[in-house]
Design brief:
Blueprint (H helix, E strand, L loop, with lengths): L1 E4 L4 E4 L7 E6 L10 H19 L3 E6 L6 H9 L4 H18 L15 H13 L3 E4 L2 E4 L15 H7 L14 E6 L15 E3 L3 H11 L3 E7 L3 H16 L4 E7 L2 E3 L2 E2 L10 H7 L2 H9 L7 E2 L2 H25 L1 H21 L7 H10 L2 H19 L4 H20 L3 H17 L13 H19 L3 H13 L2 E6 L2 E7 L2
Parallel strand pairs: 3-4, 3-9, 9-10, 11-13
Antiparallel strand pairs: 1-2, 5-6, 6-7, 7-8, 11-12, 14-15
Helix pairs in contact: 1-9, 2-3, 4-6, 4-7, 6-7, 9-10, 10-14, 10-15, 11-15, 13-14, 13-15, 14-15, 16-17
This protein binds one RNA strand of 74 nucleotides through α1, α5, α7, β12 and β13.
RNA sequence: GGCGACAUGGCCAAGUGGUAAGGCAGGAGUCUGCAAAACUCUCAUCCCCAGUUCAAAUCUGGGUGUCGCCUCCA
C-alpha cells in the first residue's frame, strides 16, 4: 500500500519498520473547550487509517495523546475559577463522549502530558548535554541553529523564518526561532513541576516527543495530525526527537486537511466552529462519517448543511439495504453468510487470491452463491482494497459500498436469500472497516412501547383488510410525524423503523 | 514576501495520457390500494490561453480565482 508522506512530499510504498508491527502516533486535542467538527474530521480520519491497517493484517499500536497542560488551559481555568486539572478533566470527558458518539474507536494508549513530565525532563536534559538546548532564567530553549535539518518538514528555511519575524522575540532566547522546552513559573501558585531548572512546566512540543518515545520507541512508522501542526509543532517535535536520539523520528508524516465554513478554516481562534454536540443533534455518527469520508483526507472539506443532508440520505440507502434484507431473509442467514465470507475476505486481503487451497469451503459456497455474483463481490472487494491502498482513497472505497448495497437489494428481489445475505455480509464488513455501523438502529427502549407499536400496526392491518384506506393512511401519516416510518410489504407483515 | 495546495454536471466528489467512479437532488418508468423502500432508464467533456503528444481533466508554460501554513489551532 502507498501513503503520502509530508516530509518527502511523495506518495511512498508503506512498509513498517519492524515486521508487520505499525507504530502510529496521533496528536490529540488540547482539552480546554468542546471538541468541534474539525476534531471530528481529524480523529475520524485516523480512526479509519488505523482500522484499515488492522484490516490489512498489521499489528497496530495506536497512541493518541491528550494535552492537559498548556497556556490556554491555564488561562481558561483562571477565567472560570477552576484549577487547570479540573478544567482539563471536564473537557477531556467531553472529548471522550464525542469520540464515542462518533464511533471513533479508542486508541490503544491515550497518555496525558501531565503524566509524562519525568520523561520530558529526561529528553530535555539529554538535549542540554548534547548542546541542542540551553537554560535561560529558568526556561529551557531548543537551539534551532544547531539542528541542521530544521525547517525540512514545514518547508521553511531558517533565513525566511527569521525575516518573517512573526515569531516571538525574547531576551531570554539566543535566536527568535528557538522554542521553549521548559517554561519557568512566573508566579508561585501556578501549576508546576520540579525540574533541574527549577519549578516550571513543559513547552508544547516536547510532550509528543516524550510520549511517542515512551510508548512506541525512538522511531515510529506513522505520525499524524492536522495540517496546521506541520509547522511549527511537528517540525519542533522532529527536531527534538532526532537531536536527542540521533535517528529519523518518523517514517511517514501524515496530515489531514481542514474543515472550512464559508471557505474559511474552522478553528477555535476564529470562533467559527460548530461543536460535535451541536452537530449530533441533527445528524448521526454514520452521517457525519460519510460526509467526511466522501472527501479525500488531505483535501479541505467545506461544511454545508446541504452536504450533510446528502450524506444523511446516502447513509439511509446503506441502512435500508441492511434493514430490508434483515427483514426478508432473517438475521440467522446474515450470520451464516458472515461465516462464509470471512475466510474469503481474509484470504484476499492476505494474498489477493481466492482461497482455492481450501477446496471444501469453496465448494460449499459454490453450491449457495451463483458464480457471477461471487465474481462481482470479489471484484468489489479488490476494488475496495486497491482504493484504500492508494493513500486511503475513501471516496473511491465508498463507491464500493453503494454498489454492494445495490447488488444485495437486487438479489433480494430475485428471491435468493443466501446470495442476498452474502452481499450484505460483505457490505457490513467493509462498512465497519470504514467505521460505519449500519446495524445500529433507533429502537423503542421499553417493552410496553414495543407492544403498543405492534398493536397499532395490527389495527392498521385490520383497516387495510377492510380497504379502509383513509384510516390506514391516517395511522401511517400520524406515525410519520413521530418519525416512525412504515413499509408495507406484499404477503408479509408491515415493518416499521424509527428514522431521525 | 517565503512555502504548500485546490479549481470536474444543479450540489458534494473520485479520477493513475486513451476518451469522465460514486453519492445527493431532478426527470421517466416498474412495483404498491396509495405511499415508502427497492429496482430500471436518464442527466458533464473537466476555470481560461498556449504547448508537448496519434491521444490530456490528467504532462509543460502562462493567466485568473480560492484556500492553508509561516503565531495558538485538528
Amino acid at each position: 500500500m502507498k501513503i503520502y508522506d509530508t516530509l518527502s512530499q511523495k506518495i511512498r510504498e508503506f512498509h513498517p519498520l519492524d515486521d508487520n508491527k505499525v507504530k502510529m502516533y496521533v496528536c490529540g486535542p488540547t482539552v480546554y473547550d468542546y471538541p468541534h467538527l474539525g476534531h471530528a474530521r481529524c480523529y475520524i480520519t485516523w480512526d479509519v487509517v488505523s482500522r484499515y491497517l488492522r484490516f490489512k493484517g498489521y499489528d497496530v499500536t495506536y497512541v493518541r495523546n491528550i494535552t492537559d497542560v498548556d497556556d490556554k488551559i491555564i488561562n481558561r481555568a483562571r477565567e472560570n475559577n477552576l484549577t487547570p486539572k479540573e478544567l482539563a478533566t471536564t473537557y477531556y470527558k467531553e472529548f471522550q463522549k464525542a469520540m464515542e458518539a462518533l464511533n471513533v474507536a479508542p486508541p490503544d494508549i491515550e497518555p496525558k502530558a501531565t503524566e509524562t513530565i519525568e520523561d520530558m525532563i529526561k529528553i530535555i536534559k539529554k538535549l542540554e548535554e548534547k548542546g541542542y538546548a540551553y537554560a535561560s532564567e529558568g526556561d529551557v530553549y531548543f537551539r534551532v541553529s544547531k539542528f541542521k535539518k530544521y525547517g525540512r518538514l514545514g518547508k521553511q528555511s531558517i533565513d525566511d523564518l527569521q525575516s518573517g519575524a512573526r515569531v516571538e522575540a525574547s531576551d531570554k532566547k539566543e535566536n527568535p526561532l528557538d522554542f521553549a522546552l521548559w517554561k519557568a513559573i512566573k508566579t508561585e501558585n501556578e501549576i508546576s513541576w520540579d525540574s533541574p531548572w527549577g519549578k516550571g512546566r513543559p513547552g508544547w512540543h516536547i510532550e509528543c516527543s516524550a510520549m511517542s518515545e515512551k510508548y512506541l520507541g525512538e522511531q515510529i512508522d506513522i505520525h499524524a495530525g492536522g495540517q496546521d501542526l506541520i509547522f511549527p509543532h511537528h517540525e519542533n517535535e522532529k527536531a527534538q526527537s532526532e537531536a536527542c536520539f540521533d535517528k529519523d523520528f518518523v517514517n511517514f508524516w501524515m496530515h489531514n486537511g481542514f474543515v472550512t465554513t464559508n471557505n474559511e478554516k474552522m478553528s477555535k481562534s476564529l470562533g467559527n466552529f460548530l461543536t460535535i454536540n451541536d452537530l449530533l443533534e441533527k445528524y448521526d455518527a454514520n452521517t457525519i462519517r460519510l460526509f467526511i469520508l466522501t472527501n479525500h483526507y488531505r483535501m479541505p472539506v467545506e461544511f454545508a448543511d446541504e452536504s450533510l443532508k446528502a450524506a444523511k440520505n446516502g447513509v439511509k440507502r446503506l441502512k435500508n439495504a441492511f434493514e430490508d434484507i434483515k427483514n426478508t431473509v432473517g438475521e440467522e442467514k446474515i450470520k451464516e453468510a458472515e461465516k462464509l465470507i470471512t475466510p474469503i475476505i481474509d484470504e484476499i486481503v492476505k494474498t489477493g487470491q481466492l482461497p482455492f487451497h481450501k477446496i471444501d469451503t469453496v465448494q460449499d459456497i459454490e453450491e449457495i452463491i451463483p458464480a457471477s455474483l461471487m465474481e462481482n463481490c470479489i471484484k468489489n472487494l479488490k476494488y475496495f482494497i486497491t482504493a484504500m491502498d492508494e493513500d486511503f482513497n475513501t471516496s473511491k472505497a465508498l463507491s464500493v459500498l453503494f454498489d454492494i448495497a445495490s447488488c444485495a437489494q437486487k438479489t433480494r428481489e430475485s428471491k435468493n436469500p443466501e446470495a442476498s445475505a452474502f452481499c450484505l455480509a460483505l457490505l457490513l464488513k467493509l462498512a465497519s472497516v470504514l467505521g460505519f455501523d449500519l446495524t445500529k438502529s433507533e429502537s423503542l427502549n421499553d417493552e410496553l412501547s414495543s407492544q403498543l407499536m405492534e398493536l397499532v400496526i395490527s389495527i392498521r392491518q385490520k383497516a387495510r383488510e377492510e380497504k379502509n384506506w383513509a384510516m390506514s393512511d391516517f395511522i401511517r401519516d400520524e406515525l410519520g410525524k413521530l418519525n416512525i416510518v412504515l413499509k408495507d410489504q406484499k404477503d408479509k407483515p408491515t415493518i416499521w423503523s424509527i428514522q431521525d
